[in-house]
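Lab notebook, bench 4. Still working through the backlog of constructs that have no structural model yet. Next entry is a single chain of 70 residues. Request: give me the structure tokens for it.
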Amino acid sequence: VYYYCITPQGNGIAERIHQFFRNVIASYIQEGHSIHDWDHILIWAVKIYNDTIHSALDGHTPSELIFGRS
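Model written out:
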């Protein structure tokens, strides 16, 4: 089954992931780091996200499911 979402609210999973990254970058900037360095923290935020256990993935990390190793 395929469907097309026109609004961001129609894609809740993607919006939740984007919220995580927005919060990480906002926290980084609030700690006194330059707003122009957001791209540097994004690399680390992606690594943290991919190495964190997710209950929706039955206790696995995204990296484990993609690469088959922990």
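Notes after review: DSSP finds three helices and no strands in the chain. The chain has a mean pLDDT of 83. Flag for follow-up if needed.
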